[in-house]
Write a structure and sequence with these properties.
Length: 711
């Protein structure tokens, strides 16, 4: 397969984010900003108990408050026809305003609709609800024994179970990750507007306009074509907008009832209970090795929390089946149902959690063996996929180790922990790896050349932040020889040709391939029209003018071929951290972070760098600052705001370097590019914990590593 883009430098190599100016000047319009005439504002009111049922709801005071148009509860909510497809009480999506049952604290019990947001918010405090309370459980660590094996995550065994116990050198440790919340800057928001009874338009924060269209159509029994979903800009999502959530159904329901456009913007507090999170997870890892550092066995168990009404599973233990060459591996994954809302994928779902146990475990093993942590990984390097035995489509992780070690100054690391002082701070280095499946799905793209020589490239895909429009522009420009300024990308619209939901680090591979293939076919079509004119806006314009054509277009669907099954496809990363720990206060500062990605060809240099830096910052939150705190006496969240749930920012990591192996994968797609969104975060928290150990000699296995755990 050709790797044109990887091999020769092009004019677009330094291309800036094509929508960057729109974003920083406030001209990029987000879902909450599509204000229409006669708009009604919705505010949710949540349950103040954690389990039980509603005894009574009195909405009279709220209904007579100024500006209030209606209050919706389960007593008067219009039927959502799709809700009848599954029986009440069945494990599944939370059916909003469906019956009197309460499963978690904060579950929406009412929605106030008013002529202004402020009036809706005021009235939402005037609803009187009484409840029948039943006992509840919100604490994972007290319910580990109740974990059940989910149907879609079977126990795994390769070789002998618990073989690590027979090894000459072994470690066995438990790790805890608290609940992390995506908390994108943009709050989830939807504006719904019906046209009669069978057509609805929504402006919605979503990672996939096509899946939102399908889900709303299913819920309200509409033709998908009669549901228009628009999301040209999304202000971050990280997995939180992969699903169509109950609040979206509620807004569509209310707009139908009132026959008016309804806008619902979640509050920051709602973001903790209405749209999912990375689940609180307990893990236990056992690693055993020969004295010269060859792995004998890996045993990895995990129990994650889910809600009582729905199972959410993720591949927490899968990384232990895949990362290293090891003859004996056993993994077990369990779910504990608690009175909390359902978790959802969050950047690096599964692997980001699992990498904490595996990669901190490898660091503990390296220390026990007195072998350098990188050297230990190299001694157990997998050259073929340990799970399937298939060859890798590409793997240059060893190059990544080297690049990162050089950039962080690994040779300066003292293997003896707690021994290096720098200006009164303990200094230490740590590293950890990450991996995630590399995918390619199907997407359809229109490429249309206009008579003025400019190019339209269009597909339904949304851009949740990584810079989808930018790589689409770059690929189109490189194939067509048309300058980036003459290319218009249109995305985030369900009426455009279908693209998958943006998630799983698959969009550059999937949509990029479709853009590539569409442009190759368009170029061919233009060549057939006039064989003697080559590329560039001027040349193409001439062809169209000669033939008196207003436009030439192609619509191309592209997907992976048989190589997808022949090879094991993964992206790899390694994260290096240098930390400073204050010996008296326990404050941890990231002195320098270096993350290296081995994810094939880097298509768009600037946005790729931003993606890796963002992932490092997110992983730093996992490692050092982020944790949802529940008061288990009441089952209620106590830190559901930015003042108390601490999300790190770039200023917390002043030196943050992103490096790339940048060698093409010959089998995955025409660009040779694999995903990088997930691997940017997977392994970061482990690298931090390992660096903190090197600095202090203290192993903190209960994240985040807050100062109190180090003094
Ligand atoms: Mo993601 S968790 O691939 O949105």
């Amino acid at each position: 397969m050709e790797n044109k883009i990887a091999k020769k430098p092009s004019a677009t190599d330094g291309l800036s984010r094509v929508d960057g100016r729109l974003k920083v000047t406030g001209k990029a319009k987000y879902s909450a900003e599509y204000n229409t005439k006669g708009m009604v504002y919705a505010v949710l009111a949540g349950s103040t108990i954690t389990s039980g049922s509603i005894k009574s709801i009195d909405t009279k005071k709220a209904e007579s408050a100024p500006g209030v148009i209606s209050v919706i509860t389960y007593l008067n909510a219009p039927k959502v026809p799709g809700y009848q497809d599954t029986p009440a009480g069945a494990k599944g999506t939370l059916k909003i305003f469906y019956d009197e049952k309460i499963y978690f604290n904060g579950q929406p019990v009412a929605m106030v609709l008013a002529d202004t947001f402020e009036r809706a918010q005021f009235a939402s405090g005037l609803i009187d609800v009484t409840y029948n309370k039943t006992p509840f459980e919100t604490q994972l660590t007290k319910n580990l024994d109740k974990g059940v094996s989910p149907h879609n995550a079977k126990d795994y065994l390769r070789g002998q179970e618990d073989a690590y116990k027979t090894a000459p050198v072994k470690i066995e440790q438990e790790y805890l990750l608290p609940t992390n919340v995506h908390n994108p800057m943009e709050l989830h928001a939807i504006i719904a507007n019906w046209d009669g009874d069978d057509k609805v338009t929504v402006y919605d924060k979503t990672q996939g306009v096509v899946s939102t269209q399908r889900n709303i159509a299913q819920a309200f029994k509409l033709q998908p074509a009669n549901v228009q979903v628009t999301a040209p800009f999304v202000g971050g999502a990280f997995g939180a907008a992969l699903r169509t959530w109950p609040h979206e159904i509620a807004a569509v329901m209310a707009a139908k009832l009132l026959k008016k456009p309804v806008k619902l913007v979640l509050s920051r507090a709602d973001m903790f209970t209405a749209v999912g999170y990375r689940p609180h997870t307990w893990q236990k890892i056992g690693l055993g090795a020969t004295a010269d550092g060859k792995l004998v066995g890996i045993s990895h168990q995990a129990t994650g929390q889910t809600s009582v009404y729905e199972d959410f599973t993720e591949g927490v233990v899968n990384i232990s089946q895949l990362m290293y060459a090891c003859p004996n591996v056993d993994t077990k994954y369990r779910l504990a149902s608690l009175n909390v809302n359902t978790p959802t994928p969050m950047r690096g779902p599964g692997e980001a959690t699992g990498a904490i146990a595996l990669e901190c475990g490898m660091d503990e093993l390296a220390h026990a063996l007195n072998i350098d942590p990188i050297e230990l990984r190299l001694r157990n390097y997998a050259d073929t996929d340990p799970l399937t035995g298939k060859p890798y489509s590409s793997k240059f992780l060893s190059d990544a180790y080297k690049l990162g070690a050089d950039a962080i100054g690994w040779s300066k690391r003292n293997a003896q922990p707690g021994t290096v002082l720098e200006n009164g701070w303990l200094s230490g280095y740590g590293m950890a790896s990450g991996m995630f499946g590399a995918y390619r799905g199907a997407a359809t793209v229109i490429a249309r050349l206009l008579a003025d020589g400019t190019l339209d490239v269009q597909t339904a895909v949304t851009d949740i932040g990584p810079g989808t429009g930018t790589f689409m522009t770059k690929i189109a420009s490189d194939v067509m020889g048309i300058p980036a300024r003459d290319i218009r990308v249109k995305i985030g619209d369900s009426s455009l040709p279908p693209s998958p939901t943006q998630g799983g680090s698959a969009i550059t591979s999937t949509v990029g391939s479709a853009v590539n293939d569409a442009c190759v076919q368009l170029k061919q079509k233009l060549k057939e029209l006039s064989g003697n004119v080559e590329g560039g806006s001027g040349g193409y314009a001439q062809i169209l003018q000669q033939h008196n054509l207003p436009a030439v277009e192609v619509t191309v669907t592209s997907k992976g071929g048989p190589d997808m099954a022949k090879y094991a496809m993964y992206s790899w990363s390694v994260h290096f951290m240098k930390v400073l720990v204050h010996p008296t206060t326990g404050v941890v500062k990231v002195d320098k972070a270096v993350s290296v990605a081995d994810c094939g060809t880097i298509v768009s240099q600037k946005t790729a760098r931003s993606q890796i830096i963002g992932g490092t910052i997110m992983g730093t939150g996992m490692g050092l600052t982020e944790a949802v705190v529940i008061d288990h006496r009441y089952g209620r969240l106590v830190n559901n705001d930015f003042a108390n749930y601490h999300v790190p920012v770039q200023a917390d990591i002043p030196q943050c370097e992103a490096l790339f192996v940048n060698k093409p994968d010959p089998y995955i797609n025409p660009m040779g590019a694999k995903g990088m969104g997930e691997i940017a975060t997977i392994g970061v928290a482990a690298a931090l914990a390992n660096a903190v150990f090197n600095a202090t000699g203290k192993r903190v296995r209960d994240l985040p590593i807050t100062p109190d755990k180090l003094v």
